[in-house]
Amino acid sequence: MQVKKKKTGWAPEATPTFWVNQASRLIMRRFEERLRPYAFGVAYLPVVFALEESGPLLQKNLVDQVGVEQPTMTALLARMERDGIVRRNADTSDGRAQRISLTTKGKSRISEVKAAMLDVVEQALAGVSQRERNVLTGSLRKVVQNLSE
Asked: Which H or E element spans position 48?
């Protein structure tokens, strides 16, 4: 005896969220591919951009600014230090704290990394008019706001 499957009416491909997920996965894959030659991973970017903007930071301040848990930051910084992007030094006022800074190598790669990311963005948005880009950006901001509340 065969059991008939009940139709739920759920058609993921008909929802914007399905396509947002697909686009996000492909964009992240392309970012990773493009950043690999620079010894950068996408996960490095929030740290690099925070240090670029603020200069050297205590690790605890970097955790707050980037919005990740301390163990995640510790592991991330270990990889970044291994790749020569950041350096960790004991803070002069508190030897237990670590001050994180970009290395010369890390600083020198920022403009190339940003250019590589812009290339991916342009590839993703090829054929999308400026008006459509504005609508897409506005809509996605609303989605983020709705899910952040």
From this structure: helix 45-54
* Residue whose tokens read 């002069």: 92
Tokens of residue 53, six digits:
């903007």
pTM: 0.82
Domain spans in the chain, listed from the N-terminal domain onward: 13-148
Using one digit for the tens of pLDDT, what is the confidence trace for 31-88? 999 999 998 999 999 999 999 999 999 999 999 999 999 999 999 999 999 999 999 9
CA neighbor of 50 nearest in space, from 75, 67, 70: 67
B/e letters for 57-94, b = 16+ CB within 10 Å, e = fewer, are bebeebbebbebeeeebeebbeebeebebbbeeebeee
The CATH class, in words, for 13-148 is mainly alpha
